[in-house]
Amino acid sequence: MIPAPFDYHRPGTLDEAIGLLARYGAEAKVLSGGMSLLPTLKLRLGSYAHLVDINRIPGLEYIQEERGLLRIGAGTRQATLERSELIRTKYPILGDAVPMIADPLVRNRATLGGNLANGDPANDGPAIAIALGAELIVKGRGGERVIPANRFYKSLYTTELKGDEILIEIRIPVPPAKSGGAYRKLKRKTGDFAAAAVAVQLTLDARGAVERAGIALTNVGPTPIEAVKAQQFISGKTPDENNIPETARLAAQAASPSADRRGSVEYKREMARVLAARAIKTALDRAERS
Amino acid sequence: MAKHRISVTVNGTAREAEVESRLLLVHLIREVFRLTGTHIGCDTSHCGVCTVLLDGQAVKSCTVLAVQADGSSVSTVEGLEQGGKLHPVQEAFTEKHALQCGYCTPGMLMTCSALLERNKQPSEQEIREAISGNLCRCTGYLNIVKAVQHAAERMRAS
User: Fold this and answer.
1) 3-class SS at A141?
2) Do A8 and B24 touch (CB under 8 A)?
3) By CB distance 3.0 to 4.6 Å, which of A95, A199, A252, B106 could disulfide with A128?
4) Of A31, A51, A57, A103, which to mutate for an interface test with B (greatest number of B Cβ within 10 Å)?
5) B60 vs A105: CB contact, 8 Å cut-off?
6) Whether A80 contacts A27, CB under 8 Å
7) Residue A34 sits at the chain B interface (C-beta within 8 Å)
8) Per-residue pLDDT tens for B7-22?
């Protein structure tokens, strides 16, 4: 399959890239890893007259922890995250998720920024970013903006990104002591999107009660879903065999899945509940041991 | 639509081509450079038969634009053999019967050679994970895994 014709641009700087996006408007699309965009163009599900390739712009691939923030450059490859000792040991929610995204060859190209900016509810990054309380840094002609991940997703394939803006960095607060996260994903085979998946990040206080809970769902609605009621319910409580199932039930209640070849509405909501309970238990266990 | 003049080092040889923006890397390799060892299968980045190394990284060449390879090096299955001698992973595939129809083999070989470059002693689990983006419908993977283990042993010994 061959995409419809387009012009290809390879800017050397971020400002040049932003200028191209500003000039071509809705006819332009940012090409990062290309692992969603190129299949979209080949299958002719979408077409753009101009692709702006940001792969050669220096300074977009990094993983740095400093001053209480983990900063990840938007161009960082999933494979780089997967091999990062820091990510594996300190951010197990990402350590869980990344090896379950697509397959190793796709992860060699795919970027975290692309996964987050794409706006596809089947992408795993958004729920994780929401659970972690991450902020997304975008840059356009007007300069930089900081957008909390839980306010970034508006509807299917629609985000807060303006036409001339590029996602450049993901900022994650370094989890305090007694924090733990987990990502639980149900998929049919390697390379498949989730039938349902749940991201959980917990921080416990000195008594073992939940000080902060981030709970978000993947691919059970038109956008990633922050399970606000579940978060509120478990906050301040010491997780136990009674309130964990109730938290998971509330999380699943936030889902609004549609039926497709991965399952019925009822099945997906039920899987969201089961995965939420498992993710909470694992996150709790990790928090207690951290 | 503008065409782009690109330079790509293919299996160690500098090559040039004039390409349309939308030309895929796999078509550049097969139809412009006439290296047909790299196959096309699903054409939707699932099956992995189009796997090549782009600057040493195994990628699915049906999902990369040719113009994106400008200034880069590309390794295909034709480049594995050196000086008339098969790559250890190629030898191991023949010895351990790691192929039947052979359609997935070029992609498998590229993925496995990249794995052995960064991991000299992969476990069975690591091999299975590494090839999880390459589909084989003949062998059930058992002999492919054995072949990679065999190649790893041979590469460590030499």
Assistant:
1) coil
2) no
3) A199
4) A103
5) yes
6) no
7) yes
8) 999 999 999 999 999 9
Q: Count of alpha carbons within 13 Å of A142, Cβ hemisphere only? A: 9
pTM of the model: 0.97
SS3 B78: helix
CB-nearest to B133 from A4, A42, A106 is A106
Global ipTM = 0.97
Contacts of residues A236-244 at CB distance under 8 Å and 24 or more positions apart, as own/partner, are A236/A209, A236/A210, A237/A209, A237/A210, A238/A207, A238/A208, A238/A209, A238/A210, A239/A202, A239/A210, A239/A280, A239/A284, A244/A277, A244/A280, A244/A281, A244/A284
Convert A208-230 into a string of H (helix), E (strand) and C (coil).
CCEEEEEEEEECCCCCCEECHHH
What are the φ/ψ torsions at residue A159 (nearest 5 degrees)?
-125, 180
Residues of chain A with pLDDT under 70: none
CA distance A284 to A236: 14
A11 interface with B at CB cutoff 8 Å: no
A3 CB neighbours in chain B (<8 A) are 22
